[in-house]
């Protein structure tokens, strides 16, 4: 007669029941703040980044975007992310020059040759230069990746700008060293962010805005301004993706490796 050990069977059944009942570990969701709208080439490449993070961590890490400055406005992003108001996000050096003296060196007016070359150079500097790394550390930020405005152009409502004479007295939204250039050649500077340029043009607060080719369709600026003067000036490069350093240090080494690898790969993807 075959002997059946009901005690062992009961124990096995209990273990199986406990295993089936154990909750699946929830994914860690990283909040990401950005002032741009959720459209255009940069938004698409950021979507790719988030998808790859989820894929390469088997769903253990996920990114939740908060577009249009819904979580933090552009000027508040660096301090806000460092303080933990968001886990990750986009920072713009030129909006906080006192916070980013080293990072702003990448905005110096130089000839813009290639999107990939520029952003790759800034990425290498941000991940290897001691002074720049210390600057991010001071803000409690971990640097992840970089992007660029691409070449600076001028978009205007009404009268097109075809010469320096045309810009005299014209109200222009400019920023950084390029904003100073517009002032030096006779424009009247108006200090508003790129994200308010649409409404500024629409209401007449400004006549023209310093702009970038990818930014026009992303913000639908063509709805309120039809004239674009191709300047092909240099680009703003102090545009980065960062993570709160405490959040970064809480990640496993495997997850940190994924974020760092994708930060580097993002340069190629966005270019």
Structural class: alpha/beta
The biggest sheet amounts to: 5 strands, mixed
What fraction, in percent, of the residue positions are helical? 25-40%
What is the gyration radius calculated from CA atoms? 24 Å
Envelope shape: elongated
Walk me through this protein's architecture:
This protein has 10 helices and 10 strands. With 271 residues, it is of the alpha/beta class. It is elongated and about 60 Å long.
Write the layout of secondary structure elements.
Layout (H helix, E strand, L loop, with lengths): L5 H16 L6 E6 L7 H16 L4 E6 L10 H7 L4 E5 L22 H14 L1 H9 L2 E7 L4 E5 L14 E3 L2 H9 L3 E3 L6 H7 L4 E5 L2 H5 L7 E7 L5 E6 H6 L2 H18 L1
Helix pairs in contact: 2-10, 4-10
Task: Kindly list the characteristics that best describe this protein.
271 residues; alpha/beta; D-Maltodextrin-Binding Protein, domain 2; 2 domains; 5-stranded mixed sheet; 39% helix; 20% strand
């Amino acid at each position: 007669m075959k002997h059946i050990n009901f005690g062992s069977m009961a124990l096995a059944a209990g273990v199986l029941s406990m295993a089936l009942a154990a909750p699946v570990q929830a994914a860690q969701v990283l909040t990401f703040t950005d002032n741009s709208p959720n459209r255009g080439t940069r938004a698409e490449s950021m979507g790719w980044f988030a998808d790859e993070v989820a894929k390469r961590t088997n769903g253990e890490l996920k990114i939740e975007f908060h577009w249009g400055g819904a979580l933090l406005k552009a000027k508040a992003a660096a301090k806000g992310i460092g303080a933990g108001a968001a886990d990750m996000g986009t920072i713009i050096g030129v909006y906080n020059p006192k916070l980013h003296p080293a990072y702003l060196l990448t905005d110096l007016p130089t000839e813009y040759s290639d999107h990939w070359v520029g952003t790759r150079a800034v990425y290498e500097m941000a991940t290897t230069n001691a002074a720049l790394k210390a600057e991010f550390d001071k803000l409690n930020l971990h640097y992840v990746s970089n992007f660029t405005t691409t070449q600076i152009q001028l978009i205007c409502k009404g009268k097109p700008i075809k010469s320096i004479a045309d810009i005299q007295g014209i109200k222009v939204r400019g920023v950084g060293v390029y904003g100073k250039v517009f002032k030096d050649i006779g424009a009247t500077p108006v200090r508003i962010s790129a994200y308010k340029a649409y409404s500024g043009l629409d209401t007449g607060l400004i006549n023209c805005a310093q702009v970038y080719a990818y930014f026009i369709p992303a913000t639908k600026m063509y709805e309120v301004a039809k004239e674009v003067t191709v300047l092909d000036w240099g680009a703003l490069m102090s545009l980065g993706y960062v993570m709160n350093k405490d959040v970064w240090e809480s990640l496993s080494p495997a997850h940190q490796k994924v974020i760092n690898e994708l930060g580097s790969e993002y340069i190629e993807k966005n270019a």
